[in-house]
Amino acid sequence: MTVHDTDLERRFSLAKSLAEEAGALALDYFNKRESLVIETKRDLQDVVSIADRDVETFLRERVAAAIPEDGFLGEEFGHQEGSSGYTWVVDPIDGTSPFVNGMPTWCVSIAVLHGGLPVIGVIKVPCASELYAAAQGRGANLNGTMLGLDPSRTIQNAMTGIGCNSHVAPDRVGSIIAALLESGGNFIRNGSGALMLAYVAAGRLVGYYEPHMRAWDCMAGYCLVKEAGGEYLPFSTEGDALLKGQPVLASNISAYSELLRIHYLNGGEGSRS
């Protein structure tokens, strides 16, 4: 076993245990959400609560105590550089709008990057008692059961997740959905991009596309999809690019080229590799 293998296993074990603990903390807040103070960010649909901040603080403090040399990027409190070459990328509650409105489609998303790539992805879905976990070369699993994508699934015989937000013009979102429907597909949106990426890894969705997402929303899901046998559109993590929104697309290999075509036909950018 190489040093990298040992380092990866150590962080994978920590990520899974922290996801369970963070999920329990978030679920406690969810069960008493009527008492939470809800704030808005960019617009009235972009909300945050004390639950988001407390869960991220918990994760930051626990990672810093266990592996202080690692970097950390979270949605609520930004980026802290590390010296180890590993960076934790965390969304404490992805799907805050469903969360504050009493819907179960939210999750805790934890990724670890190394060499600019997501090498660990763990997503905890407290309301469903589900833990999705993947690490580079170790495959992906859901509650310990290994995941593998079915190559017979296409956008025509399965569902595709579509995400949107105020960074993307409504008419562009409409044209993306229209292109998918015209290709014989259908779509769903549940309010959590990270969770829909986990659903891709589990084979519940054949793909997920959102024209503008942040690293903390997609890195864990990207690792899960890759390790389950899927493909994803590269996301730049060099310098300031790690902090900026970029297009996100992940799917079965059998659906990837068709979804990529929809992406580019509707003003999409990003690597064509």
Structural class: alpha+beta
User: What's the rounded overall pLDDT mean?
Assistant: 92
Helix/strand order = HEEHEEEHEEEEEEHEHEHEEH
The total domain count is 2
State the total count of DSSP E strands.
15
| Relevant CATH superfamily of the largest domain | Fructose-1,6-Bisphosphatase, subunit A, domain 1
State the strand order across the main sheet.
Answer: 4-3-5-6-7-8-9-10
* Radius of gyration of CA atoms, rounded to a whole number: 17 Å
In terms of DSSP E residues, the strand content is 25-35%
The total count of helices amounts to: 7
Could you say what the CATH architecture of the largest domain is? 2-Layer Sandwich
Globular, elongated, flat, extended or rod-shaped: what is the shape?
globular
Q: Tell me the helix content.
A: 25-40%
Which spans of ≥5 residues are poorly predicted at pLDDT below 50?
Answer: none
Broad CATH class of the largest domain: Alpha Beta
Distance between the termini: 31 Å
CATH fold-type name of the largest domain:
Fructose-1,6-Bisphosphatase, Chain A, domain 1
Q: Please describe the biggest sheet, giving its number of strands, its sense, and whether it closes into a barrel.
A: 8 strands, mixed
Draw up the topology in text:
Elements: H1 3-31, E1 38-40, E2 47-49, H2 50-66, E3 71-74, E4 78-80, E5 86-94, H3 96-100, E6 107-114, E7 117-125, E8 130-135, E9 139-142, E10 145-146, E11 159-162, H4 170-182, E12 186-188, H5 193-201, E13 207-213, H6 215-228, E14 231-232, E15 246-251, H7 253-265
Parallel strand pairs: 3-5, 11-12, 11-13
Antiparallel strand pairs: 1-2, 3-4, 5-6, 6-7, 7-8, 8-9, 9-10, 13-15, 14-15
Helix pairs in contact: 1-2, 5-6
